[in-house]
Specification:
single chain; alpha+beta; 6-stranded antiparallel sheet; 6 strands
Amino acid sequence: METLTEYLDTLEMPEQRARMVEIFDWIKESFPDLVPVIKWNQPMFTDHGTFIIGFSTSKKHISVAPEVKTMKKFEEKIADAHYGATSNLFRITWKQPTNFDLLKEIIEFNVTDKQDHTKFWREA
């Protein structure tokens, strides 16, 4: 699996596929400089070769992974959106709406914060 289309083709539920298409299309339109990639069988978006945000899906939710530093920064806003979270990702259930304003803030933060970053991940 090397492209977003190939990833999307692995999603069996049409409504889940449509939801991910909506999110990926929004990212491509809102952040045209980000590059969609598949790594570790998961769709991610990068900027100048550094990780910005990644996604995965399960039967019950979409997992959104923006890295630990970003999770800490947006912890309160993620909770306010009623998304479940761990230290390195948050979950949007299939029944919950996608908070595109929050996604925009998270992506903008990572792009700006990592503009001079030269490695894929932030160092711990």
